[in-house]
Amino acid sequence: MKILYAKDFNRVLDFLTINLDGVTLAFSTAENDRSFNRHKDYGINNLNSIVKDFNINNIKYLNQIHSDEVLVYRNDFENITDKEGDALITSEKECAIGVFTADCVPIIIVDDKNKVIAAIHSGWKGTYNSIVTRTLEKMIDEFNIDIVNTKIFIGPHIRQCCYEVSEDLKEKFIDKTNIDRDILFKGRNLSLEECILKDVREFGIKEDNIYSLDLCTHCEEDIKLFSYRKSVGTYGRLFSFAFIK
């Protein structure tokens, strides 16, 4: 796994961006308190502004429900933003697909050779149910992606340093993942990233194609981020997305 640092990013407004071969990834911050809550007018306005800011045609996202449901967006799927799910795949150009988070894990998958992208919202339920694996499987079934060249980007989320869970949930994760408990947990603090890393490695993603932003939404000090736990429920939403040019 490779760690991405501030020097690895471009800064576009309130976003940390990465440009690959014809694909752009963007992770929002809370530097200017710019929140992307799809249920608020200001959130919709901020989402729609991405189209202008990044010079693309449209933006698509799902009604997230903490599931392992994976959908595919094509241009004839007009009302996909009304559909429930937590991962979205597309090969359409000039269309951003993204996910909302405020402690959960945003994951962007890119096959920049075949120009196929996915955006995943992986909370503890999605992580437990291996939503990243479900997404990779669907990307192969629908688009025959090239696993050798496929890249995984794990965005800002509440990390093991700050994510305490119940003893019951701890035992469930240990039993389900078979990851060494001393790696997966520090006390009752869970590493969602270790679960995701296990899934993508077992799927065949090369280590050099796995990237982590290594930013904790709860305790990061250099870059301002929204955190559900830190704000005790009064929180903004981050938006992580990708598009193909």
Automatic annotation (TrEMBL):
Taxon lineage: Bacteria, Bacillati, Bacillota, Clostridia, Eubacteriales
InterPro entries named among the record's database cross-references: Cu_polyphenol_OxRdtase, Cu_polyphenol_OxRdtase_sf, Cytotoxic_necrot_fac-like_cat
Source domain of life: Bacteria
Entry similarity comment: Belongs to the purine nucleoside phosphorylase YfiH/LACC1 family.
CDD domains: YfiH
Classification via SUPFAM superfamilies: CNF1/YfiH-like putative cysteine hydrolases
Catalytic activity, as annotated: inosine + phosphate = alpha-D-ribose 1-phosphate + hypoxanthine; S-methyl-5'-thioadenosine + phosphate = 5-(methylsulfanyl)-alpha-D-ribose 1-phosphate + adenine; adenosine + phosphate = alpha-D-ribose 1-phosphate + adenine; adenosine + H2O + H(+) = inosine + NH4(+)
Alphabetical keyword list: Hydrolase, Metal-binding, Transferase, Zinc
Source organism (scientific name): Clostridium sartagoforme
Any matching Pfam family: Cu-oxidase_4
GO MF term list: copper ion binding; hydrolase activity; S-methyl-5-thioadenosine phosphorylase activity
The protein's name: Purine nucleoside phosphorylase
Keyword Transferase: yes
Primary role: Purine nucleoside enzyme that catalyzes the phosphorolysis of adenosine and inosine nucleosides, yielding D-ribose 1-phosphate and the respective free bases, adenine and hypoxanthine. Also catalyzes the phosphorolysis of S-methyl-5'-thioadenosine into adenine and S-methyl-5-thio-alpha-D-ribose 1-phosphate. Also has adenosine deaminase activity.
UniProt keyword annotation of Membrane present: no
